[in-house]
Each structure stands twice: as structure tokens, then as C-alpha cells.
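Exercise 3.2. Students should predict the tertiary structure of the chain below and write it as C-alpha cells, then compare their answer with the key that follows.

Predict this chain's 3D structure.
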Amino acid sequence: MDAPTLTSFEIVEIQQEICHLMAEAGEEQEAEELERIDAKVEALYELLGDSAEDKLTRLRAVARRIEAEAEMLKQEAAVISRARKSHAQSLARVKTWATSLMVGLAETKGTTKLAIDGRSFWLAKTWKLDGPKEASDWPQDWQRTVTKTEPDKTAAKAALKAGADVPDGFAWEQVEGIRWR
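Answer key:
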């Protein structure tokens, strides 16, 4: 039987709903809720067509959309990160200007504290340490060594492919996944 005739708008609607449900499932931890989401996705999946070929073609479109959205979010995250850094730098400049103004008031009027419209302003002294960028240029007792151990899956896979024994608590299994162009 041929796939049901779907308009491009209907395919996009189904695609959007599947994408939203997949995002929801990615955040969900409760088995009962995951089953509810899976049931909804299954119902939408059936709307994509009767034949495996129709479903694969339409699921590929869904996957490509999710990939595109993931890439867009990655780019947006970079934009947001740059904006956050820019705001931090702007804040530092504004505080420098405000400090200069307070220092000027202290020098001309002899006051280091002000109250304006219920807000307080004052000068405070703190210590700041500047030093070389390279840790090796610092005195030995002012250095610390941070050791971070993390799993190396690439090395583990290479060892297992070469015939190493699978340690207790690990599983080494062949999995099958789809690829497309």
C-alpha cells in the first residue's frame, strides 16, 4: 500500500511534533513519562507511511532537522558566550569609571562614602595579585598541581579490538545504527 498522501505542511507538523517529543524525552527521567512520550511518537511514526521506505525517508528528514537545530543551538551558544564576555568587560569598565569618580570625590571633598536616593556608594581597599601567566614562573610554593583522570574510550576500544579481556563491569558489544546521505 502506498504511503498516505501528506501535504508538506502536514509532514512538517509531524516532524515538529516528533522533534519536540524527542527533546522532551531527552530531559525526562521517569519511566512512565517516557512510555507516554514513546506512545505519542509511535502514533506520529505511523502517520509517516506504511512502507519502511516511506518511513525511512521521512525519519531522515526529521533527523536532519534535529541535526540542523543542534548546530544552530551550538552557534547560538557561542554568540551568547561572546555576549556574556562582552557584558563582563563592559561591567568592569563601568566599575573603573565609577571608582575613578569616587576617588576624585575623595580627593576633592574628602569623602569616601555617599548616600544618594537611598543607595550607598563607598571606596573599599582590597588586595589584588598580578603575576606571570606561566605557572612555572611562579615560586614553587605558590604553585599547585591539578591531576584529572578521565576515561579514554578510544584507547579502550583499541585495546579491546586488539583482543584485550573485557574487565568486570564493562560491556563490549557490537551495535548497529543507520547512516544516510
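Discussion points: The radius of gyration is 30 Å. The chain has four helices and two strands.
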